[in-house]
Design brief:
Layout (H helix, E strand, L loop, with lengths): L2 E6 L5 E6 L1 H5 L9 H10 L2 H11 L3 E4 L5 E3 L6 E3 H11 L1
Parallel strand pairs: 2-3
Antiparallel strand pairs: 1-2, 4-5
The chain binds zinc ion.
Length: about 90
């Protein structure tokens, strides 16, 4: 499944973030896995669209991590480095 990550800003604004696995896992888990291929397959299968649909149906703002590694909250203008934030969490599991 494509990564659909939830983030809640300090101001209460809620986001659903899609991050390509190649961005999160590059050189940290296994070099044997071709994450770009995994991402391409998941995109082709519509999994990213699914993350966006879930975001819209739950009232979250969808953030496409392919376009920008930074989240800028439209409500309070605070910023977050998505890769730093979620990589730490995902790799701690
Ligand atoms: Zn905010």
């Amino acid at each position: 499944m494509a990564l659909g990550l939830s983030y809640r800003c300090a101001c209460g604004e809620r986001f659903k973030v899609y991050l390509p696995k190649g961005v999160v896992y590059t050189e940290t888990v296994s070099r044997a896995v071709d994450w770009r291929a995994v991402d391409a397959r998941e995109e082709a299968d519509g999994e990213v669209d699914e993350v966006q649909r879930v975001a819209e149906s739950t009232g979250c703002t969808f953030v496409d991590g392919r376009k920008t590694p930074h989240l800028a909250c439209p409500s309070c203008t605070s910023e977050l480095d998505l890769v730093d934030h979620f990589r730490t969490r995902l790799l701690a599991v």
